Give the backbone structure.
Amino acid sequence: MPAFRELKAVSARWRSLDCEGLDHVTLASEPDRIVARGVAVGARGDVPYGVYYRIDCDLGWRTRELALATSDGRGLHLVANGEGRWAMGTGEPLPALDGCLDLDLSGTPFTNTLPIRRLSWREGEQRELKMAFVPFDSFEPVAEAQIYRCIEPGRRFQYQAADLSFEAELSVDEDGLVTDYAQLFARVL
């Protein structure tokens, strides 16, 4: 039996616990892709942000495209081949992101869903993953190692930065969307 139900159109909303902010995402399953469209408003440090994001994944939950735009006029467009190669939307390769299959955006818990849904998990299983991390203050993508450990398949995971600077338990629903992200986000829809 699969850990998660077949994806239907669904929306989720989280409030930030460490600052004032909200994130709202709508997921849709299309014949050849999964599309997440979201809006995040908040602050990291002293830098406020208002960001629209669209993430396209293939049906295996591998990130294929990211489009970001901010209320102050900045933007970022990345494309990925689903096998760990990334480029700017203009085609310029980004070799620093080689090997990254998943995407992590700093202002939303939604992107935790990507590796959780992409991989099959057994209780106690731990994996170190290389993520294409995009901070909302600079919009400059970097490769970042993250560790996920399955506490309860389809329900609870432990997330840890590989440099041990942060860790939190994540609870997820039947769609793999975070319901509780200790210290950072709480689901409100």
Summary: The chain is about 5% helix and 50% strand. The two ends are 26 Å apart (CA to CA). The chain has one domain: 10-187.
